[in-house]
């Protein structure tokens, strides 16, 4: 099958959606499918052979964060050229409502279109206001996927229609087989995320750290991610700042080793999350997880059975739960075991097969419609001509 995948966010500033698309493309390539990914990227950025640059992205505030998106006449021209050259059996657009390549592709593409909705934002006034603009593009979508029940709810409430829920995927064995790093072991709490993005919740974790260290002064907080490290610790008393170690950006391999090494992974995110891929990665690596009680996180953690939850934005609640877990090795081992079983439902062997089933359904449907049109007389091209639909 020839598969075209559209990434809305800049490939050279990686995030959860980009990782999902990368792993999805590589999963299909391993099984012999032809895959091309169209993504914003600087023209001089080294890209995998299956990624085509749609040009440089610009930062835009989006869903409580800053997304690097790509839109405009040059982008539209690159979208049309990519579609023409690819002649895909199916187009898979991620975040089709964002002002980026997905919307441009929806307008330009012909044939079966699958769309995945990642965003969970129940108060999205922008999405409601833009509905009339989005409607024509959304009507071209053959099948809709939501990565969680909360992303599906956002879609239903703001745009109508429905979607099948297929979660983000993870290569579970990649994380499970990673070798721990001794330097990151021993009374360590881990955090991975953009340091200077408030909704990732690092300030909440910093607010909890004095109470954690008061109970367990030997504990270290290891932080992986980009951002202003001095600003991140400025709320801490000076004598505690040495207990925080910043690792900067880490490779996929080091992320897996990081998650295999720590005693507790903390996800203090405050909102805007529709899934929580880092929770799945942590469980895959065998790290006990403590997360804020966002609805999406609770779902990923099986309502607290596969990981513990604390009250969102409550540093005291976080500190109390963290101390309790750090002092209870048996409970941490129980969470490791439960997480390792629960996480298998997110492995690419399951998620990739479910997405491929969606592709096969929409391509079979498109073939059936084409056959009906030919049987009606005049063929597809004749029907298009009678309806006044010119080909690109």
TrEMBL record:
Keyword Translocase: no
Record GO terms (molecular function): glycosyltransferase activity
Superkingdom assignment: Bacteria
Protein name listed in UniProt: Glycosyltransferase family 1 protein
Transmembrane segments: none
Gene3D superfamilies, sorted: Glycogen Phosphorylase B
CDD domains: GT4_PimA-like (cd03801)
UniProt keyword Transferase, yes or no: yes
Keywords: Glycosyltransferase, Transferase
Record-linked InterPro entries: Glyco_trans_4-like_N (IPR028098), Glycosyltransferase_grp1 (IPR050194)
BP GO terms, sorted: carbohydrate derivative biosynthetic process
Stored Pfam families: Glyco_trans_1_4 (PF13692), Glyco_transf_4 (PF13439)
Species name: Streptomyces cyaneochromogenes
UniProt domain Glycosyltransferase subfamily 4-like N-terminal: residue ranges: 14-173
């Amino acid at each position: 099958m020839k598969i075209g995948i559209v990434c809305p966010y800049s490939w050279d500033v990686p995030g959860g959606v980009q990782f999902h698309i990368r792993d999805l493309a590589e999963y299909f390539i391993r099984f012999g499918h032809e895959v091309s990914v169209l993504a914003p990227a600087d023209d001089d950025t080294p890209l995998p052979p299956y990624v085509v640059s749609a040009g440089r992205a610009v930062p835009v505030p989006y869903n409580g964060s800053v997304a690097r998106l790509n839109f405009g006449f040059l982008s539209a021209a690159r979208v049309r050229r990519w579609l023409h050259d690819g002649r895909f059996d199916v187009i898979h657009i991620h975040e089709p409502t964002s002002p980026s390549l997905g919307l441009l592709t929806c307008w330009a593409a012909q044939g079966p279109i699958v769309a995945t909705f990642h965003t969970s934002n129940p108060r999205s006034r922008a999405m409601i206001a833009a509905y009339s603009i989005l409607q024509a593009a959304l009507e071209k979508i053959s099948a809709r996927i939501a990565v969680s029940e909360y992303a599906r709810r956002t879609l239903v409430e703001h745009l109508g229609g429905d979607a099948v829920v297929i979660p983000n995927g993870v290569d579970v064995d990649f994380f499970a087989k990673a070798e721990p790093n001794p330097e990151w072991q021993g009374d360590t709490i881990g955090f991975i995320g953009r340091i200077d993005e408030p909704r990732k919740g690092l300030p909440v974790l910093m607010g909890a750290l004095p109470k954690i260290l008061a109970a367990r002064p030997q504990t270290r907080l290891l932080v992986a991610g980009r951002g202003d490290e001095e600003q991140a610790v400025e709320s801490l008393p000076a004598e505690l700042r040495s207990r925080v170690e910043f690792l900067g950006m880490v490779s996929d391999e080091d992320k897996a080793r990081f998650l295999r090494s720590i005693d507790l992974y903390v996800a203090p995110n405050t909102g805007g999350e529709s899934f929580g891929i880092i929770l799945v990665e942590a469980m895959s690596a065998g790290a006990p997880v403590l997360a804020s009680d966002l609805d999406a996180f609770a779902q990923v953690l099986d309502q607290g059975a596969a990981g513990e939850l604390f009250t969102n934005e409550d540093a005291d609640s976080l500190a109390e739960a963290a101390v309790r877990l750090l002092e209870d090795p048996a409970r941490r081992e129980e969470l490791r075991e439960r997480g390792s079983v629960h996480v298998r439902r997110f492995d690419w062997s399951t998620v990739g097969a479910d997405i491929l089933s969606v592709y096969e359904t929409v391509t079979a449907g498109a073939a059936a419609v084409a056959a009906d049109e030919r049987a009606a007389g005049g063929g597809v091209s004749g029907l298009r001509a009678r309806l006044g639909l010119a080909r690109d």
